[in-house]
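User: Could you check the structure of this?
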Amino acid sequence: MIRGCALAGFGNFYFIYDDLDIETKVIESLSKTKLEYLIVKDAQILDKDSNIIVSMKKATYLTPGSLFNWREIIPAETPAASIFVTIHDPNSDITTDYSQNLERTELKSIICSAFKANR
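Assistant: Sure, the predicted structure tokens are below.
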């Protein structure tokens, strides 16, 4: 039954015969799991001189197939020129910064390329 459940869920199974080995096997198994999300640690909208117009208030999670939805009202007298996003991949413990001009690119394409780059 255990073997059948593990195979049905595309997982692994171990039969542990030594009580002293339980903790080691559980930790090994958990460390092999892959976290299916990225963390958007920071996002900033910048003016043409790279001054911060507005900054994201808190980190958010990004899962496959989801969108990063961040809305801010930007003063008309300060036109936004670019966006700066910091994304962290907890699987590889790599943090990557992305910057893009807002004139021709939407944030969605920045996040999509970031997700592909970290996979």
